[in-house]
Write a structure and sequence with these properties.
This protein is an alpha/beta fold and about 130 residues long. Helix content is about 20%, strand content about 35%. It folds into two domains: about 60 residues, 2,3-Dihydroxybiphenyl 1,2-Dioxygenase, domain 1 (Roll); about 70 residues, 2,3-Dihydroxybiphenyl 1,2-Dioxygenase, domain 1 (Roll). The protein has three helices and eight strands. Strands 1-4-3-2 form a four-stranded mixed sheet, covered by helices on one side. A four-stranded mixed sheet has the order 5-8-7-6. The protein starts with 5 loop residues before the first strand and ends with a helix. The model has no long low-confidence stretch (mean pLDDT about 95).
């Protein structure tokens, strides 16, 4: 089994795609008017309009309802990325060091999903991510 992507159901797909293009620096591939993918080196973010839910099971997903998942992107410089994004997106928290060895900053996408940018800073974290 291979983890392929994370899909977000969006009420405003245009706004969500623009947000993730800004954060990742990657251009979205629009596969249909109601579905786009942003392919990054490590993962794919799929964004579907709320009308795509009916293709599976009506009511099985709801835009802007996430309160448990955080999308995380490893970057080379959290502080520089924070400076680049802070005036354009909703900041959840500024860069800070976490007890598990990462330095992280967190934002909210236009529909409330939390997005973290992090970099390993302790030797143990660097080993975990192969960035020694």
């Amino acid at each position: 089994m291979k983890f392929a992507s994370t899909r977000i159901v969006a009420a405003d797909i245009q706004r969500m795609v623009a947000f993730y293009e800004l954060v990742t620096g990657c251009k979205a591939d629009w596969l249909a008017p109601v579905f786009a993918e942003i392919v990054t080196p490590g993962a794919v973010i799929a964004i579907g309009g709320q009308e795509t839910v009916a293709l599976f099971k009506p009511g099985s997903a709801e835009p802007a309802a996430n309160r448990s998942a955080i999308l995380e992107f490893m970057v080379s410089d959290v502080d520089a990325e924070f400076t680049r994004l802070k005036d354009h997106v909703e900041v959840v928290h500024e860069p800070k060091d976490m007890p598990w060895g990462n330095r992280t900053a967190q934002f909210a996408d236009p529909e409330g999903t939390r997005v973290a940018l992090f970099m390993p800073v302790t030797e143990a974290a660097k080993r975990r991510f192969g960035s020694r």
